[in-house]
Amino acid sequence: MKKSVERFNEIIREKKLIDVAISALHWDLETQAPKKGLELLSDVVGYLSSKSYGVVTSDEMILLVEELKKKREELTEIEDKTLEEVGKEIEKLTKIPVVEYREYNELTAKAQGIWAEAREKNDFDLFSESLEKIVEFQRRFIKYRGYDGHPYNTILDDYEPGMTVEKLDEFFGYLRKELVPFIKKIKEEGKEVDGTFLKKDYPEDKQMEFSRFIAEYIGFDFERGIISESAHPFTLNYNKNDVRITTRYIRNMLSSSVFGTIHEGGHGIYEQGIGDDIAGGVLGEGTSMGIHESQSRFYENVLGRSRAFWVPIYGELQGKFEALKDVNIDDFYRGINKSEASLIRVEADELTYSLHIMVRYEIEKALIEGQVEVRDLPKVWNEKIKEYLGIEPANDKEGVLQDVHWSAGLMGYFPSYALGNVYASQIHAAMKKDIDVDAALENSDLNKIKEWLNQKIHRFGKLRKPEELIKEITGEDLNAQYFVDYLKEKYGKIYQV
Ligand SMILES: [Zn+2]
User: How far is ligand 1, taken at its centre, from the CA of residue 264, in Å?
Assistant: First the structure.
């Protein structure tokens, strides 16, 4: 028995080493690799993915899992949960032929570069062939893997275990019913908010300095992490001691780097806070993308877009940029919370953000069902944006080409963002029972907040499922009302409605 557990852990370690190599290549592909290097690096990613697949689905590993499953009561909690995760992974992978798995991983590694070029050139046709193949793979893999209810449930569960189309339809239905009339009210009766100063001149080098400062300020540990640049901000972790975040610097858009950095910093803090007992193992990472997004969006919005957050550090920011010279903290606070229908998801305000997610959710569902084809996406996208936000993209760069996700094969992922918003406000309400969050912010005591999150969320990694975690912290299941209440209170005050 002891021997089996040891061997099981050895194989997991071997897989982990290959996976870290794959992550390192992804990091390179997305931050620095030259365009013409794409071909070779993508092949290496494909090759290593098939190796990783081979290690975890080997006959030896399958037998070990079978054997250990029979002796679960003898395992520690960590061993048992690891076994559960690995069992799930094996079940998923063994249904997909290895040749197709490798091909798919090569394809998605390549497609990210192709997407970046298509986006830059504002040319959907450049990307559509790759995307067609990706969607084909997705549909086929779901068939192989099987599904309960809606086919989309299978890929949804990859990012948010336990989530289903049925639950999401209700969830989004509620948000839509509550938020759409409130947004309309603000537009019609709200006091004018000026955010134009945020689009003035903000030299990139100064933004870069401030990004580093703010990441460190919120608690991102630079001894165990770095910050870099990429077309689409993201976080990548090898383990808790090597966590990498990116942001982007746009000269006339201060919010992009500031809030992008705080957002990715929130993801990074989660990964750096994983418990030592599970670090490096299968359980040693964020439990779901929804909980991950709750951490990033908690830092970005609940903290980063509050007035209290800026009280001790607004002077630091103001001192860096001529454009803020005559903007006081109250105007700054209102400006960074200006709500308006906009086209780019990552720049959207908290209030309209969920509508962007609903558009993507509906499109993905339809793609998976085969009701929409890739070639029609630009048209379908623009129609849906018009329906939800009342505005229309002038081109695909600010429409269907704006997000990296589909090129990376991340379908079923977008709902995590909306769930993250809701988890974040629910967690915020629980945190306020234990600590005075505003006072901590005004005193620059970000550590107090981080420690609370470390204790209640981060250290558990995948030891707790999202549902268990949220219930343990808040005493309730996912409850979208917290988010709606939070938005109505905050924006009600800002817009005086
Ligand atoms: Zn995120």
Answer: 6
Query: Among residues 64, 46, 35, 48, which one has the least CA distance to residue 103?
Result: 46
At residue 89 the predicted structure's pLDDT band, cuts being 50, 70 and 90, is very high
Please write the tens of the pLDDT for every residue from 481-493. Answer: 999 999 999 999 9
* Catalytic choice (30, 106, 160, 264): 264
| Residue 348 backbone class (left: φ over 0; alpha: ψ -120 to 50; beta: rest) | beta
Containing 473, the helix (H) or strand (E) segment is helix 466-474
Number of separate helices (H) and strands (E) present in the chain: 21, 3
**Residue 22 structure tokens:** 């794959």
How far, in Å, is the centroid of ligand 1 from the Cα of 209?
Answer: 22
CATH architecture, domain 165-495: Orthogonal Bundle (1.10)
Predicted TM-score of the model (pTM) = 0.93
With H, G, I as helix, E, B as strand and everything else as coil, classify residue 245.
strand
For residue 265, the CA-to-ligand 1 centroid distance in Å is 9
CB 462 within 8 A of CB 81: yes
Average pLDDT on 151-159 reads 96
| Residues whose Cβ atom is located within 5 A of ion ligand 1 | 296
Q: Domain-by-domain residue ranges, the chain?
A: 2-133, 165-495
* Residue 398 DSSP SS3: coil
The tally of CA atoms less than 13 A away on the side-chain side of residue 264 is 28
Distance from the alpha carbon of residue 267 to the mean position of ligand 1, in angstroms: 7
Determine whether 264 is an active site residue. Answer: yes
Sequence-ordered list of residues with C-beta below 8 angstroms from that of 289, at least 6 positions apart, any chain: 159, 160, 413, 416, 420
